[in-house]
Design brief:
Number of strands: 11
Largest sheet: 5 strands, antiparallel
CATH superfamily of the largest domain: GAF domain
Strand order of the largest sheet: 2-1-5-4-3
Mean pLDDT: 85
Distance between the termini: 26 Å
Strand content: 5-15%
CATH class of the largest domain: Alpha Beta
Structural class: alpha+beta
Helix content: 40-55%
Amino acid sequence: MLNPWLALEAGADAAERAGQVRRAHEEFVTGGGIGALVRGVVAESWQRCAGASVEPESVAGIDLADGELEAYRAAHPLARVMPLFRELLGTVADDGAHLLSVCDENGRMLWVEGHAQVRRHAERMNFVPGARWSERYVGTNAPGTALAVDHAVQIFASEHYCRPVQAWTCAAAPVHDPRTHRLVGAVDITGGDHLASPQSLALVQATARAAEAVLGELGGGPGASAPAGPVLNVLGCDEALFDAGAGRSGSSDRAGGTAGTGAPLRLGRRHSEIMMLLAAHPEGLTGERLALELYGERDVNPVTLRAELSRLRGLLGPLLDSRPYRLRRRPHTDYDAVGDALSAGDPRAALAAYRGPLLPLSEAPGVVRLRRLLEDRLRRALLRRPDAVLLEEWVRTPWGEDDLEAWEALLTCRGAGETRRLALASRVRELRLSYGLEESAGGGGDRPGRYAAGREAHATYPQRSRP
């Protein structure tokens, strides 16, 4: 197949392919083998689902409902482009055979629209506003997989990992914030096998690009997702993305033509560390202090740091000042977004903004300190008033999957069925054994140190930022 994101090649028999994929799915969930007829993007998704212990009979859980749902989606950036989605995809959603859906960056459904009879049919699998449709919760599906791989994709019939969804075919495309280039959600059309066509994939891709263009034109105001000044993205990626934003002056094209065009710069690892440290110290740092933050007590020739700063100035122009080293316009960072939400007492917003540890592979002492400070603040907020939805989201991330305290807190939350409680208890016991703790309720005095060791061991994970 020329396009790996399409479910069927031209002229393929949909019924025959559905049977082939159904048999391949059964083989995978029973024995772990993946047949050659399974598309690569689907095979990789199935493997992620199995690794996340998604049950093939799972249905989506409900995260938000009623007033809480209304308030959340009214404040979401994609609320501003819902009129556009309805204009471009409304006829598809009203034809009695399809649904239009829009989810946030975590796979939480915000809108599901279409003919009432089709919506009632979809409700059987909890394809409803407020339900969580990320891969980690409900397996391979177009919006969830589009978010996981950051690309438009079709998912056809038995390519869905969970059996309750296999009667449907869907096509979805991710939508990005035009300033920060972070995912803000996905737009999807869901229906029958006839959606496995190049036209449906092209339609959702074009709709997503149109939405990004409109978000860029709307700029600030209610529901806007990014500030007007410089933006630095440093969470969940080893190389920061920097966008100088409005008011850029003096930048040149010495970075391969990107610095003067308004496109974001992908910084190297050392430059990423320097930018984050300067953003965290708007008052500026002396060369000696900056070297200590970057290299610690290692004996490093001062010329090395000056050379790095000279190369960085070549990318940034006069934005980088010296004596002391500082940024003339402090960028807003995604690190700030998490911290601001925590300061406002909103752990849900903080968790949504947290894309992963700060520059996770960095060993610069100053960066490591900032990384641990933010993660510890977020963890304390989640543990202070345990919320099953937020804790579940945390422990299903690579950086939270070995957090014993979070698993224990989740076990104490009300509402879980007996099967789920047994699974949680098993995971808690597994972690306690791996950390060498007593199996009794007590004996956890050294837990923070144990968790820190586990956290450092799981600092590497897939990047989600878009170049």
